[in-house]
Design brief:
372 residues, mainly alpha, 15 helices, 80% helix, 0% strand, disordered N terminus
Length: 372
């Protein structure tokens, strides 16, 4: 076998995934793809405008001056402090993983890679670009490819595991407390999403122990999807899925305290995202603490539906879900203002953060090239 052929042979799951990442990275960063991402942002802005018109026709919007009278600078500062806590908690597991595997203390690289991953999670179909772009950014900054893959892929798995735990708590409590507060069809859709993610989590956790049974199950599922014409290339999909399972399994082998920190951080992030919406209720003087549980439960339902919607963060359906879920909590006229606050901290602030990082990164690169 000649040198070129030997270089092309990839013997581990990570090595094979490197080829896929490079291929997908080239597709994600094309001009047409960037135009698609920009159109999604524009589509979300348009959705907000159209929802404002709809809500104003159904129930007249509360005057902005009246709303702002209740919102002090302390309120604004506190909302951004909560978001800062969310940001740090999102970064913490990746930073600890990165340090445990590479002994690197470069916080900036981790901060940027997480923010870039979040942008592509919100901009690509089913968020498939998230792990790819986070991994690629870290490798461009000096992290070994194999290490970056395990760090980012395992971080994604633990995020899903944490959400399964968090959503299970609220779905269980809803049987006794809020069973009639959500449309039955939305509740069933959320349960379907929960079952899909629960199976995925169990499969990863059991893969190393029951490898043969897990592989047989994966094979049957992929054959079924092929028969349903959901996938086109059965061999390619099988190989790719199996490699990801092997990578996830390697990512599970970490310090127990790191695992606990990762799960706790993620669960607290989900909680704080709901608190932002709750605090906006309180700041408008239209809510009290008795609403917190129901509000957090409805946030879980929305998030579960988001996870099976192809366009991430609920593009084209967010406003509809928000109106249906929260019209009983936000008094007449205040619904749209709550929608704006929630959408800003749930979506637009991540887009802004990504654009600032890209601009700053380019300025640093230009400065270094001039120095060199």
């Amino acid at each position: 076998m000649d040198k070129n052929k030997s270089n092309a042979v990839r013997s581990t799951a990570e090595d094979r995934e490197i080829i896929r990442i490079d291929d997908k990275f080239n597709k994600i960063t094309t001009g047409s793809s960037k135009l698609f991402y920009a159109s999604l942002v524009a589509l979300n802005i348009l959705s907000l405008v159209l929802s404002m018109i709809y809500i104003n026709n159904k129930q007249k919007l509360e005057n902005a001056n009246i709303v702002l009278e209740n919102i002090t600078w302390n309120t604004v500062v506190l909302l951004f402090v909560i978001f800062l806590c969310i940001t740090l908690l999102e970064i913490l597991p990746v930073y600890l993983k990165n340090y445990s595997r590479t002994k690197s203390k470069k916080f900036g690289i981790v901060f940027n890679s997480v923010a870039i991953g979040q942008f592509y999670e919100y901009s690509t179909v089913y968020g498939n670009g998230s792990k790819i772009m986070s991994t690629k950014y870290q490798t461009l900054k000096g992290v070994k490819y194999n290490q970056a893959i395990i760090i980012n892929y395992s971080n994604k798995f633990f995020n899903n595991l944490s959400f399964v735990i968090y959503s299970f708590i609220f779905l269980f409590l809803s049987l006794f407390l809020w069973s009639n507060s959500v449309n039955i069809w939305l509740y069933i859709l959320a349960l379907l999403s929960f079952v899909i993610y629960l199976i995925y989590v169990i499969l990863v956790l059991c893969f190393d122990i029951y490898k043969k049974s897990s592989i047989n199950f994966i094979s049957k599922v992929i054959r079924f999807l092929y028969k349903m014409k959901i996938i086109k290339d059965i061999e390619k999909t099988y190989g790719e899925f199996l490699d990801k399972m092997l990578i996830y399994t390697k990512g599970l082998k970490q310090n127990k305290w790191l695992t606990f920190t990762e799960i706790f951080s993620n669960i607290f992030v989900f909680f704080l995202k709901g608190v932002i919406l709750y605090y906006s209720l309180i700041s408008m003087n239209i809510g009290d603490v008795s609403m917190l549980g129901e509000l957090l439960f409805k946030c879980v339902i929305i998030e579960l539906i988001f996870k099976i919607w192809p366009l991430q963060r609920g593009t084209l359906i967010f406003e509809f879900l928000f109106i249906v879920m929260f019209q009983n909590l936000f008094f007449e006229g205040y619904l749209y203002w709550g929608l704006i606050v929630f959408r800003f901290f749930d979506y637009f602030i991540y887009i802004i953060k990504y654009l600032l990082i890209i601009m700053f990164d380019k300025l640093i690169s230009k400065k270094q090239s001039l120095i060199n």
